[in-house]
Design goal:
The strands form 3 sheets. A 6-stranded parallel β-sheet has the order 3-4-2-1-5-6, sandwiched between helices. Helix content is 33%, strand content 15%. The chain is α/β, with parallel strands linked by helices and 407 residues long.
């Protein structure tokens, strides 16, 4: 089981005035391939409280992040330039983009008074030593850093230099306000959650969710299952699913899970009707089924209207809701109603509602109800790994334990 924040300091535990603070952030935002403009600035806005706190306390601030998966520093479409520009606008400060993050230029800039200025390092992955977790790269950053703060929850499951090697050589290290909130919210899903507690699970694969299902089995009062993973469960119940996506090697697990949930007298809701079409992306031949069976020449890409009513009725009664995974291909308006209806049901619920990262976070944003959620994780894969009980390298390295115990 996770140790939560045990032994980890937060940015509030340090005297920041006059100190150089290195903030490892998750500013890995999507960019339009043609215009290079930011299409979703959720992660940038999520980082602002920690940045503002450091500035208010008088820190000299360096912010750093990766962006995408560049093959080399010549992949200019992955430059941090648009992110640095947007940060400057949101913070009303000058953001100086440093092309060579490990150069003497950073030290030179830090030696002068910094009034309403922060340094933003160029894409950390432009240097291959970042993903290789190289200690010499970490030591270069450490040579001009007083305090290291990790606020990049979405990258904390990766043992990269800025996440793992860097804090290993720093005495003063901790987390920012975003990671602190993320961990407290996610821990709340397992530590005395208010009942009834419903987990809404969707997305493509059952296999991605098995560890989370196992952890939630004895804590939740019920599961609401949509998305493509629902078709594996329907197949397990011998209900025809047509050409819908099925994980054949997980049908047995799905059947056993249904039996285990029912043996505990808990709820498990599956789709009873579907929005179907002839092939993926086909919006010309849409039909809604009258029941849970999907004709053999069709595939389901969203939950149907009666399923939406059933799911909504269940969620209305919940005091705690965890949502991970969309109900359909929400990026296509014709198949977005299910995901948006779940988002609306959460928005209207006065209880605790936490949305896992990745596609469910994107669906919540697209629905227009994001601001009504208690918390939307920015973590993506890191959120799922944390909920599964796995130890994240970026958190473990910040605990006061021997290095050998982390590896």
């Amino acid at each position: 089981m996770s140790q939560g924040l045990k032994g980890i300091k937060t940015i509030r535990d340090f005297e920041l005035a006059g100190k150089t603070v290195f903030l490892r952030l998750d500013l890995n935002v999507p960019l339009d391939k043609k215009t290079n403009k930011i299409t979703d600035e959720t992660r940038i806005k999520a980082a602002l409280p920690t940045i503002n706190y450091a500035l208010e306390k008088g820190a000299k601030l360096i912010v750093a992040s990766h962006l995408g998966r560049p093959k080399s520093k010549d992949d200019k479409q992955y430059s941090m330039e648009p992110v640095a520009k947007r940060l400057g606008e949101l913070l009303d400060v000058e953001v100086v983009l440093m092309d060579e993050p490990d150069s003497e230029g950073v030290k030179h800039f830090l030696s002068a008074p910094m009034k309403k200025q922060i340094i933003c390092l160029e894409n950390l992955r432009f240097d291959e030593r970042e993903t290789e977790n190289k200690i010499e790269l970490a030591q270069q950053w450490a040579s001009y850093t007083d305090i290291y703060i990790n606020d990049a929850f979405g990258a904390s499951h990766r043992a990269h230099a800025s996440i793992h090697a860097f804090p290993s050589v720093m005495k003063q290290k901790g987390i920012g306000l975003l990671i602190e909130k993320e961990i407290k919210m996610l821990d709340g899903l397992f530590e005395s959650p208010k009942k009834p507690y419903i987990a809404v699970l969707g997305g493509a694969k059952v296999s991605d969710k098995i560890p989370v299902i196992e952890k939630l089995m004895d804590i939740c009062d019920g599961f609401v299952i949509g998305g493509a993973m629902a078709y594996t469960f329907l197949k397990a119940m011998d209900i025809p699913v047509g050409k819908s996506l099925v994980e054949a090697d997980k049908v047995k697990y799905a059947k056993e899970m249904i039996q285990r949930v029912e043996a505990r007298n808990k709820t498990i809701l599956l789709p009873v009707d579907h929005v179907t079409t002839l092939s993926f992306g086909d919006t010309e031949n849409i039909k809604v089924t009258s029941n849970a069976e999907i004709p053999e020449d069709r595939m389901a890409l969203d939950i149907g209207p009666q399923t939406i009513r059933n799911f909504r009725a269940c969620l209305e009664k919940a005091s705690t809701i965890f949502w991970n995974g969309p109900m359909g291909v929400f990026e296509v308006p014709a198949f977005a109603k299910g995901s948006f209806a779940v988002a609306e049901a959460l928005a209207n619920n006065p209880g605790l509602k936490i949305v896992g990262g990745g596609d469910s976070a994107a669906a919540a944003e697209a629905s227009g109800f994001a601001d009504k959620m208690t918390h939307i994780s920015t973590g993506g894969g890191a959120s799922l790994e944390y909920l599964q009980g796995e130890r994240l390298p970026g958190l473990e390295i910040l605990r006061p334990i021997k290095q050998s115990e982390v590896m």
